[in-house]
Amino acid sequence: MGKSFSLATRQVHLDFHTGPAVGDVGVEFDAKAFAAMMKEAHVNSVTVFAKCHHGHLYYDTQRPERHPGLKKNIDLLGQQVEALHAVGIRAPIYLSVQCDEHAADTHPEWLALQPDSKIVGAGPFQTGWQILDMNSPYQDYLAEQTAEVLRLFKPVDGIFFDMCWDQPSSSQWAVAAMARKNLNPESESDRARHAHEVAIAYMKRYYQQVKAATKNAGVYFNSRPLHNLAEEVPYLAQVEIEALPTGGWGYMYFPKNVRFARNFGKEYLGMTARFHKSWADFGGLKPYAALEYETSQMMAHGAKCSIGDQLHPRGTLDVAAYDLIARVYARVEEREPWLMDASPVAQIGLFQVPPAQSSSGADEGATRMLTQLKHQFDVVNAASDLSKYELLVLPDTIPVNAALAKQLTAYLRDGGKLLASGTSGLSTDATAVTLPVLGITAHGNSEYTATYIRFGSAVAKDVPPTDHVMYDRGVLVKATKGAKTVATMVDPYFERAWDHFCSHNQTPGDRQSPYAAAVLTKSTAYVAYPIFGAFAAHANYPYRLLVRNLIDSLLPEPLLRVDGPTSLEATVMRQRNRTIVHLLQYCPERRTKHLDIVEDIVPLYDVPVSLRLAKQPKRVYLAPTEAVVPFTYANGRATLKVPAVHGHAMVVFE
């Protein structure tokens, strides 16, 4: 096609990892029927396979990696690309990177090795993938395969490189490469550093290779850590967030990561799948309500949509799967006039938790909490333009060095507000304050695993009048002059131990501590607990109430107010002369030990909404029906009631 690159809105990622023991690859493939089914399903881009994890190729080639079960007269990839292009559907091409069973079996010396010389990945007699070492000649081998694909299918719509994480290795190739850089192969940190440098280098190499062949092609390297986008985005034409909620990612992975990924000036998409569980769940079909929710989340955050599927080895599509996809994508297509070129509006900047602290759950807890409170926020870091936000949140474990302290102090001086918790703005041992504007002195960690929070009147709105347990260890702080203690710690009788304990769980509260649980100044708020990680772990609603009431003190005029259940998600997007509020009411249920799913859509009625707008809108209506909604406008806010939210409502202020 060769036109300027623009990310397609309704994609299918068509997996085709087909083992060499399958002998009838593509024998039932019908190019016209294939393209027609995609077209009828409202799909406008299909990622099709040149090479899978098994390391086999699916096009007309003399290379020995061609799938042994693909008959000589079948050019599966070539027919797919031609048929899709004939009906106006893009066809970006997939290449597996570090998973290649054929290369692993024919060149075992190319495998990544652990320090004890065991291979990385599946060992003998295991089902799974062996992992290739990108220090080895395999990198050139993949470049040759890529070059052939780029030549045969020029101009390509895009190349999707998969399985591209930083892979430390102790192979001969890696050790020699590290020695050339004066890195120590015995050092775990040096091996990790080298692995990252190798990954960045091959990304740059392959990106330039693709762009040299087709200037406007899409390029993406999957399985990369999204927190590293600032370094990697020069080698990406777009950003894709693989997030199959039922496949291990969960329903918070996409909204947590999209709020960061959308800040780099690249088009971005969310990727889910039609499977009940995860990839290659043959015969597993997701309930319609779940797929509607997942694509609605993408739309609500300004992302394009991608749904994963896997083609049967014989080349046939699952009719039921495409009936499902058609129903979902018809709905997406109908809403696209209100989606295209729409940008998210955010009032709060949530600092990204450092990768080393990701297990704390602070990032997920903060995302859950702010989403439940209907606040509009981006995920940011110190390199972001912080001036765009009225409030910054530093959740639990954000280290503040002298440079960041200076940056945040200037931000506050210019009228910004800040909320911190845990050791954010403190030394890691909680004995020193690195951000003095918080209005606290630090005195180390609490000696008690569990303490209690006694809410003061300033933050007591809607809070039951009792001391509320905090299950996670807090830090000991006191308010400085000019700051106000708005909640205090209550200590237990003693720390629970084998030789002195009381009842089944934490020790009851005994006495008010001299230390603060929460401190408030005119421009800052501080919570002396890892409250966001605690919320992720325990979902104790008073934690959310404390944060809500502190934010209300700092941010009395939120961008959006929605009077609805905590399960109701709300985002604000801006599109030319429109502001669009997305309301999502879907409730994933834990229906197995490890699987959340949405099967039923339960509507909400007469949902109050208040949006801060600089000017009175001419009209307010629901998209896509354009049914008018009565509203009032006063004190810079448009206020109305949304008649009904059947899963996903779009309220347009125009």
For the secondary structure, the number of strands is: 31
What's the shape? Answer: globular
- CATH homologous superfamily of the largest domain? Glycosidases
Low-confidence stretches: none
Q: Helix- and strand-based class?
A: alpha/beta
> How many distinct folded domains?
3
Main beta sheet: strand number and arrangement?
A: 9 strands, mixed
Beta-strand content estimate: 15-25%
Helix content: 25-40%
CATH top level class name of the largest domain: Alpha Beta
Gyration radius, to the nearest Å? 27 Å
Total helix count? 14
Numbering strands along the chain, what is their spatial order in the largest sheet? Answer: 11-10-12-13-20-19-18-15-16
Question: What can you see in these coordinates?
Answer:
It is a single chain. This protein has 14 helices and 31 strands. It is of the alpha/beta class. The protein has three domains: 10-340, Alpha-Beta Barrel (TIM Barrel); 346-554, Rossmann fold; 560-653, Sandwich (Immunoglobulin-like). The protein has a nine-stranded mixed beta sheet, sandwiched between helices. An eight-stranded parallel beta sheet has the order 5-4-3-2-1-8-7-6.
Quick synopsis:
The chain is 25% helix and 25% strand.
Write out key terms for the chains shown:
654 residues; alpha/beta; TIM Barrel; Rossmann fold; Immunoglobulin-like; 3 domains; nine-stranded mixed β-sheet; eight-stranded parallel β-sheet; 14 helices; 25% helix; 25% strand; globular
Question: How is the topology of this model organized?
Answer:
Blueprint: E1 10-15, H1 31-40, E2 45-51, H2 76-86, E3 93-96, H3 101-106, H4 138-152, E4 158-162, H5 172-180, H6 188-213, E5 218-221, H7 229-232, E6 239-242, H8 253-261, E7 268-273, H9 288-300, E8 304-310, H10 319-335, E9 343-344, E10 348-351, H11 362-372, E11 377-380, E12 391-394, H12 402-413, E13 417-421, E14 440-445, E15 451-455, E16 468-470, E17 475-479, E18 484-492, E19 509-520, E20 524-527, H13 531-538, H14 541-554, E21 560-562, E22 568-575, E23 578-585, E24 589-590, E25 596-597, E26 604-612, E27 620-623, E28 627-628, E29 631-634, E30 637-645, E31 648-653
Parallel strand pairs: 1-2, 1-8, 2-3, 3-4, 4-5, 6-7, 7-8, 10-11, 10-12, 12-13, 13-20
Antiparallel strand pairs: 9-22, 14-17, 15-16, 15-18, 18-19, 19-20, 21-26, 22-23, 23-31, 24-25, 26-30, 27-28, 27-31, 29-30
Helix pairs in contact: 1-2, 4-6, 9-10, 11-13
